[in-house]
Amino acid sequence: MNMVTRALLNTEYDYIPESSEWPNGTRNDVILAHKSDDTVHPSIIIEFQRAVDKAFMKRAIGYCLQASKRFDTEPVILIVCIESVEVSVIESLRKCDDLPCYTASCCYAEVDLEDYQNTEGFKNQKRKFGGLNKEDYIKEGQQQEITCDYEGRMEFIKKFMQDRAETNKAMSWELCLLEGKQKCNWNYKSANSLRMAFAKDGKRKQ
Question: Which residues fall within 8 angstroms of residue 40, CB to CB, at 6 or more apart?
Fold first, then answer.
């Protein structure tokens, strides 16, 4: 871990592993977050990929967008390619000055983001949130934050469980906690404490 943080950000012993599950149901290989929990230091995404092509790069951009929402800062992504890189991808990269690898410019990500927004995955995610654009989604989160009292939190969990069940997905307390923190500023310390609070509420209402 320190070898990675030293090479990318010239720092050691400052990063810890975080959950790599995202609220949209995707998951990347490794995510490292700074111990200070501030919005100054970028998170680090690490992906191990056999063949790097444009389809994978679009997924990688999706991971970066999720990390940006969670940590409120632009992440750094390290892609470890095991076999090959598609020609169209490598043509958009340049060799690093101080590392034996390639780097992508911001304009590459912006171009691919436009392509990503035209994919079925992005459209399905937009339908999931009722067709809201980014600004509307932020406003909705702010409105929901105001109503997130105790009963609101319990209803939020029930709705999250129902949505997972409707898509044949097992309940993920980690994802539920992350989504609750983003939308309602929950202060639960762990997914287990959230699960126990919900179980206690169920016993109280019996």
Answer: 73
CB-based contacts of 186, cutoff 8 Å, min separation 6: 148, 153, 177, 180, 194
**DSSP state letter for 49:** E
In SS3 terms, 11-22 reads as CCCCEEEECCEC
pLDDT digits (tens, 9 = 90+) for 25-83: 889 999 999 988 777 789 999 999 999 998 899 899 899 999 988 888 889 999 998 88
Hey, what long-range contacts does 119-126 have (CB within 8 A, 24 or more apart)?
Answer: 119/58, 121/62, 125/24
* Beta bridge partner(s), residue 32: 17, 44
- Cα separations in angstroms, 66 against 28, 34, 42, 181, 202: 10, 16, 13, 13, 32
Length of the chain in residues, anyone? 206
